[in-house]
Amino acid sequence: MTALDRPLTSTPSLARPSRRTWVGVLVGVLLAVLGLTSLFVGVSDVSPVSVLTGGADSDAAFLLVTSRIPRTVAIVLVGASLGIAGLIMQMLVRNKFVEPGTTGVSEFATLGMLVTMVFLPGLAVVGKMGVAAAFGLFGTWVFLRVVRVVPVRQLVLVPLVGIMLGGVVGAVTTFFAYRLDLLQSLGQWSQGSFATIMAGRYEFLWIAGLMVVVAWIAADRFSVIGLGEEFATNLGLNYQRVVAVGMVIIAVITAAVLVTAGMIPFLGLVVPNVVSLIIGDNVRRAIPWVAGIGAVFVLACDLLARTVRMPYEIPLSVIVGVVGAALFLWLLLRGRSRAH
Amino acid sequence: MIALENVTKRYDGVTVVDNVSLTLGGEGVTALIGPNGAGKSTLFGLVGRLLKPDAGRVTVGGLDISTTPSADLAKTLAVLRQDNHLTARLTVHDLVEFGRFPHSRGRLTMEDREHIERAIDYLELDAYRNRFLDELSGGQRQRAFIAMVLAQDTKYVLLDEPLNNLDLRHMTEIMRLVRRMADELGKRVVTVLHDINFAATWSDRIVAMRDGAVVADASSREIMRPEVLKAVYDTTVDVREIDGKPIALYYG
Questions:
Q1: Which residues of B touch A215 (CB under 8 A)?
Q2: Do A233 and B102 touch (CB under 8 A)?
Q3: DSSP H helical segments within A219-282, as ranges?
Q4: Within-domain flag for A154
Q5: Phi, psi (5° rounding) for residue B75?
Q6: Alpha-carbon gap: B131 to the closest alpha carbon of chain A (Å)
Q7: Where do the domains of chain B lie?
Q8: Under CATH, to which class is B1-76+156-252 assigned?
Q9: Is the pLDDT of residue B245 over 90?
Q10: Complex prediction ipTM
């Protein structure tokens, strides 16, 4: 190979691994610091000192165990799993701008919640989650069917179709909720917040965590699926089956997050894109990064939501929406400058 | 051998591949030529189990592709399609690693790693292994895809228009590589080519298609005659001998 073969515009690849390590350490430290901070920030005074001096029966320890620890665990699970749902969806659709919230999946799951409220009001939470997941799965299927008609290379058209689909389903949901006087209950889910998370009210999120593990086990298959149906078939992979597994992962995560914390926009979109910029789209390598950065992102936003208007809380989805939208815009504008 | 027996494929009533019986995959390089819409890519799609034939049977190395598990076929046959636009951001090394998927199923053994290294070496991609594919030139990217196919370690390699969108130097470079893969590694290469001079220069056998049927199938020298090319392309092609090689002139 002659020297002429090297393109002059690209940066030497040596710089990359060191930058990667640096960012990895930063994410790890942030996760630990924000996680600990999250345990001790709130209206009631809970500090390491008050927990230690008060002993196991004190109010501070009680609060820590029933509220602060569940809340922090829930945040980490939601951040990690929503990022993974976005990542898997982007692999299935082969489009960087999709996530449950831009494809109608969240709206279908919300419709599922409304259906349980109307027809099965006494259903246990796990049942509600199951119905929401089934609706979410149906929504994923509908979206994948619709997108087949849209040319894959129309990058922005694909999420646009998804957002329209979500708009239609959302409108139907709102209409019936309005007619049945259930708008207020609906608002509870359409605005994500961790304010009501307590022990006994967040444990379903472990199912979302389980889906992250499933995604990790099948990581290479999702990478191959991301190369497209022709590559996957050539490599001897059952394309339809892997897509089906991916759809289940997306639907279950969406539903689990919806019944516990509510809708959280942009996260599944922004986090995988940021990770893609740093280390690329090899799913096996990307999963710990997406999970970690997703958790850090939600932890930081939730801390903001708790402290900005103390002693009141701003809904988390408002903060995530503002920060996420800004990041999304930046990604969009940045993407335009990249040649494709 | 890759054997097609009375294979027919229709799209919405239009017959694209019409009752074709053909044996491919002899030693060396076989070029598949023909005008646009002749059914070359469809034929590749049928052999690569991306499309289902409406009639007929396809076997690869004695395995019926409609009944053999896809994972087993992937160890015998590798197909590289012409549209390799990837949305996923992968490095060269990632891509070549995925070529081992039929063997490793995601868990790389020492042997898999050796194959990956050999493929990267063979395509002279060592300096670019950590580059993302979207940072490479067209020629480098095509070499990365061929390295992936090589790592798949199959006897049969199907390349659908590997010279698409490449400049003159990279076209020659890729064809030289294809030739070496056949001569040094014993790969049975079948490739769709648009430029008949490339086909004549680098392949041992040329199969010409038109309107979904095979119209000529012979050695390069026998195909490179004005009357044969006229029958294939329906346009006048002059053939001159230059340095002992037949060269087609079709520039007007």
A1: none
A2: no
A3: 219-225, 229-234, 239-260, 267-279
A4: yes
A5: -90, -10
A6: 6
A7: 1-76+156-252, 80-153
A8: alpha beta
A9: no
A10: 0.87
